[in-house]
Design brief:
One of its GO terms (molecular function) is sigma factor activity. The protein has about 180 residues and is mainly alpha-helical. It has ten helices and no strands. Helix 3 runs antiparallel to helix 4, helix 3 crosses helix 5 and helix 8 packs antiparallel against helix 9. The N terminus is likely disordered.
Length: about 180
């Protein structure tokens, strides 16, 4: 069974942040984890400005909730990412879904049609043969996004892939499903 990597000096010294509110340790935490948190938020939200705004809230919340961190329960980075994901979940729906709406519009414009309706009709007509040969992950994304009304960001998070990658694969797959000659 694999073992977790030992804590490095920065992680071990961060205990004082949580115990005593040491701002120097907080700055170390920020410098170490902010780039990774911003990356996760950017991929999840699909909007760098919104991700930056959310990141400020994440690190404010980390400071405010530092006493709740339990090193025996989870790694520090895991705790930080959980706080980041709670920030995403706490955003108003219109902000969380703006990127998804933009992607839906972009895909609909490529084909000058409502892809959701098209896919539902095609799925009803083909039944179990719908989307044969489509990558399993993207077929699941189609189900989540077009048949269960998840956002692109939500589907990407569920599937563990970046939103932009899902967008690119979705456009390619819809072309494949439509039998389009477009590339």
């Amino acid at each position: 069974m694999p073992t977790a990597a030992p804590l490095d000096h920065t992680d071990a010294s961060l205990e004082s942040l949580f115990k005593y509110g040491d701002k120097n340790e907080y700055h170390k935490l920020y410098n170490k984890y902010a780039p990774a948190v911003l990356g996760v938020l950017s991929r999840t939200l699909g909007d760098k400005k919104l991700a930056e705004d959310c990141m400020r809230d994440v690190f404010r919340k980390i400071w405010e909730e530092r006493a709740n961190y339990n090193a025996e329960k989870e790694r520090l980075f895991t705790w930080v990412i959980k706080i980041a994901m709670s920030c995403v979940a706490g955003l108003p729906a219109h902000k969380r879904n703006q990127f998804a709406d933009d992607v839906h519009e972009e895909i609909d414009l490529v084909y000058a049609m409502d892809i959701k309706s098209y896919l539902k009709e095609k799925q009803q007509a083909e039944g179990v043969n719908f989307a044969i040969g489509v990558d399993v992950t993207i077929k699941e994304a189609i189900r989540l996004i077009y048949f269960e009304s998840h956002s692109f960001a939500g589907a990407a998070a569920t599937l563990g892939i970046p939103v932009n990658m899902l967008r690119e694969k979705m456009i390619k797959t819809i072309k494949q499903i439509k039998g389009s000659l477009l590339t």
